[in-house]
## 1
Amino acid sequence: MRKILVAGSTGQLGKCVLRELNGRRYAVRALARDAGRMAGLEVDGVVIADLTKPETLRGACDGVDAVISCAGAAMSFNRFGDRRSFYEVDYRGNLNLLGEAKKAGVKKFVYVSLSSADKLRQTEYADAHEKFVDELRSSSLDHTVVRPTGFFGIHLEILKFASKGRGLVIGSGDCRTNPIHEADVAAACVEALEKVDDELIVGGPDVFTRRETVELAFTVLNRQPSLVSVPPWAFKLMINPLKLINRRIHALMDFGVAVSQIDVMAPKFGSQRLSDYFGVAAKEL
């Protein structure tokens, strides 16, 4: 497989996937919603399309050997004006892309979901991903679902809070996880192109409790930890009004509550460490 379409190419993970593909000398076609965000990306072709609008996707997969989709609704808390839900983008949007891939005769479809999703389907975020996985599995297309633990990028919110002297722990903070850098997930996505496995579950090299992750942020900042523990039910009550303002952000925070209450562990795949990532990010705060 030599020509790859990357959906979600302007996101943090998507950019890492493009770099990984370029490093391995694949021909890359990038699919993006905003042409302005393509600046500086090395690709062989660009398709400007919106996954939620099927008519814009026509021909996007023509001549492509495989699709890697890390496309989804924004994981950022800062993009408050973006109200597209996870069901709209992660489920229905990717379903539109799958339809185009099948029509074009694409040989492989790699999709990025999440680890431990079966324990989290009561949340919109996990359920939207898994509804698409269900569709992908029922299709005739060869596929691999990449299942990472939490991305390093989302942990930056913890570092930002710590820089202001605040550390939030939901519940006891005893549940464990081994978060993974986006670049390591990108490497897994590219390796999945040649794998026959229908799933690839990946985590980082270090295991933390949720409380230890917050404490690490304070340590990197050379600050005395100042942690506040909030019961999950109280946090859910606090975020309820967001349903009326921005459903996506509410769903993201609701997922954050749920995922913090279970162990999310995966086999070690990545090599980059969260402490180093925090150290670099701390210099930019």
## 2
Amino acid sequence: MPGREVSCGFAKVVRELGANMLLKERLAGLGALFFKYRSYTPVLFALVMFVFLASTSFHYRSGFDSAAYELVCLGVSLLGLAIRVIAVGYSRSGTSGRNKRGQVAESLNADGIYSIVRNPLYFGNFFVVLGITLLFPHYEIIAINILLFVFFYIPIIYKEEEFLLEKFKDAYVEYCRRTPAIIPNFRLWRRPELKFNLSRVLRRENGTFTGIIVGFVAIEVIAEYFVAHKVHLDWGWIGFLGVGLVFWAASRLFKRRLRALDTAP
């Protein structure tokens, strides 16, 4: 009977919509959870690499011991840091923060690096993780960490965009229409309206810089132990670690002063 077919078809659509809404809610829930603990994501990626290190079938490929190759890997991570520095340095007050309890956005960043990509901080994080991952030139590790990165950050981006859409409404919709979410479009570049805020960068990004240094040094030490069964660290890495620790200590010591200087709108 036609009426019954229409009724069954409508019920099917309702069930599908219900399933989609449930999936949407789950994605938002994951985004909120991952957002809260996003500072600990490097630990997750490091665990993947250490599992391979501990495997008896794991062997380094040629090139790992090359100082030039290690510098290339470090350069990739520092590129990610540079992207974050640009995003934070030209961001508006009350945005691009490290808050963990929930989403915060006093205004909408839409110029500077935010004019070419909507999520420059996470775009920078990708290169930070990629540089450390490339220390192990194995396709398995690289592929797994990239997949983990996507799995972890897609829900976070979804949750953030849900919040921004609710807060800024049509302004955010228009911004999304012209600005890509992940892959930058450099032709869309708009000069930032604000001046570069160095104190904001020093206050917010000292952890990223120190994390990169500690990550590289830790992997060097642990890898040497698993491969050569000894603990050894080149003087170059020791000096690099020293610079990182001094920078971190200074930023913590002058934390209040840096916060007071962070007065840009």
## 3
Amino acid sequence: MSFAVAHTFVGEKSAPKLAFVLHGVLGAGHNFRSFIRGLHAERGDYGFVLVDQRLHGASTEAPPPHTLAACADDLARLSALLERAPSTVIGHSFGGKVALEYARRHPNGLEQVWVLDAQPGAIAPEPDHEVLTVLEALRSVPVPAPSRDAAVTALTERGIARPTAAWLATSLKRTPNGYVFNLGLDGMDELLSDYFQTDLWPFLETPRDAPDIFLVVAEQGDLFSPELRRRAVRLPPEARVKAHLLEDSGHWVHVDNPDGLRALISRELA
């Protein structure tokens, strides 16, 4: 049997519309549960699928290659498993870039793509890039850990801020011997390398009939330089891309300004 990503539903599986929701790197589908429950309360015509992307959550056994294309094809297999294609894909950060790659590779039936504070272009990360620093720390934490608190303490001792360490601890799973991170750390370098190297600006600039693409840029975030913000708003109309600046928000848009983001998505959903 081919690999299938783990997923959970918010709303009815038989809802008229289906939306896939994609978390960021080192996260899991449950990161968006609270936000999506609020969105579903406003848009009960949608069923929302919270996806554990490959190497994350309950999808750590994904076979290589670990690339954005593989992540997009995982969603296509999930669509086949559910016997229906999503009309909408919502992705945050790393998940936003996966959402674009899915739209590029599997556009049939897709009406909207929401890219939540994800830089579409290629990135040349510095050695001290936050994700790389966190990944190094995760690999050095002795596991199994005797408790969640012990894992958090080990991460903070390695220079990770306590709020970040506490968030990473949500990816811990309990085993008979203690707690381990529910992350496929061995394949993460390959996945991140492809993520950093992939440039999807040309796709955004391409005229299309569908889907509509919404770029949500965090007002207080640092992923979009002034030049990139100008590039986003100057995309040709025939590319069907709309750029929105989410006020009062850093990179964690669904946490920093959930009401503003929820109102925006709810209003624009097809």
